[in-house]
Amino acid sequence: MSDPRIRAIPDIHGHAKGEHRPFAEERPIAYSARMLFLWFYHACTRGWPRFLMVADHVNFLTFEDPGAVSTVRRALKLAEAADLYGAAETAGVDVGHAAVVSEALHRGMRFSIGIEVDTDPRSRPDAQNIIDAMRPDGLIRSVHFLTIDHPEKGADWPWPFDNPEFAELFGTVGTDRTWEMYVAKLLDEVEKLPGQIVGHFYVPARFGHWPEHKKLEGYEERVLDACVRRGMAIEFNTRFLYRDHPEDQKKRYLDAYKRLLKKARAKGVPVSVGSDAHSPKDQGGAFDVALQVLDVCGINELVFPVNGRLARVALRATREHLEKIKRHPERTHAPGSSITGLGRAELGLPEEVAGPRALRPGGARAQRPSSPKRAPKPPRAKPLRTSKPLRPTKKASPKRRPVTKKQSKRKVAAKRAAKPKKLARKPLRKRAPALLRKRKSTKKKAAKRRR
Ligand SMILES: [Zn+2]
Ligand SMILES: [Zn+2]
């Protein structure tokens, strides 16, 4: 059986807008809520990657995108609340699609919508406004263009160096110069612009153009140090591994990543994994290989962007957890369900496995029999965490309180409806200070008596 941790690796990089077309034919493509919903739907039918972020190129952004993104976020909320018809109607999909996504959300899958911010000169000049309106969960910083002196087209020509159509220009520019310019550009972007993750660091080596080993090591150090300064994560991009590339190049690529990720771990730079899928079939592509690399590097914790922050996902399943899966395969959470730094409620993860959530449409009453007060404590998330204290439950608990507050608010509201408002409120507020005063005054009196 394949390692259950493969499914728990968050995939932070995917393009719902599809495969690249010939360079001259590429045009901005508008998101639709349906397109995004179906992108997630495909992951749901597969059952993984458990956490998935779609991040299309900034050059493909359109004015329609923020609207589509907020619509699909609403549709996902409805699907999570088991309102299948609402979700289907909102996203413009079939009820069957909504049912699959709803089921997956109840199992704990979670979706983010981010952007790959590259250096594409074809980006709209007002792209920043669109990005702001989209409220992306995460920004991947990457470099796809370098400004060169083109032999025919002249100075300041934006070279898409990792595009096969323009690969022969490596012959003109040279591998060393390309890497020098690439790293300078990437560092500039990382230092000056917002972002959470540095994307596909080894992209200039796509056609086998590797710089001298010592130089490459120096570049790795500099980019990781910039990540430390800026609090950014580094991406382990797996696209090269499932695409058609020579085996020796794949080995070289993997060796490079093993070195980079080990260094990242030593420097405390968070790591995230991205399939860079341009088609749903590639979501989570080569994550089995990625897991081997992570194991070699001793990395058990990955990051996943949520609301502009990096949530940490622990992968390791303990023996206790695996035995639990054997005993109750239908009732156990998959590894990776513990995200540190964010409460489960904040992540949109269900508080209960399946049963109580299904009762949700019935309202607060339907939830009560499942005793919500006890719900935060079951060791469901515990077996997944190994060394560190279980912060998420602590952080999650204040998030849950509002539920009970709401319930009590409802009670208060009901009482208020029965009685006039002001009479009920005043004594409550005045009593507390009065009591304090009395206590103070009795203390003073006691002090006076002692004198
Ligand atoms: Zn890219
Ligand atoms: Zn990409």
The CATH homologous superfamily of the largest domain is termed Metal-dependent hydrolases
Largest sheet: 6 strands, parallel
Q: Give, in spatial order, the strands making up the sheet with the most strands.
A: 1-2-3-6-7-8
Query: How many structural domains in the coordinates?
Result: 3
CATH architect. name of the largest domain: Alpha-Beta Barrel
Low-confidence stretches: 340-346, 348-406, 419-443
**Intertermini distance:** 82 Å
List the total number of helices: 18
Please state the CA-atom Rg, rounded to the nearest Å: 26 Å
Strand % is 5-15%
**Ligand set:** zinc ion
What percentage of residues falls in helices of 4 or more residues? Answer: 40-55%
CATH class of the largest domain: Alpha Beta
What is the average per-residue confidence, as pLDDT, rounded to a whole number? 81
Question: What can you see in these coordinates?
Answer:
This protein has 3 domains: 5-316, TIM Barrel; 339-418, no CATH class; 419-451. The radius of gyration is 26 Å and the shape is globular. A 6-stranded parallel sheet has the order 1-2-3-6-7-8. With 451 residues, it is of the alpha/beta class. The model is unreliable at 340-346, 348-406 and 419-443 (pLDDT under 50). The chain contains 18 helices and 11 strands. It binds zinc ion (2 copies). One zinc ion binds at residues 116, 118, 142, 144, 199-200.
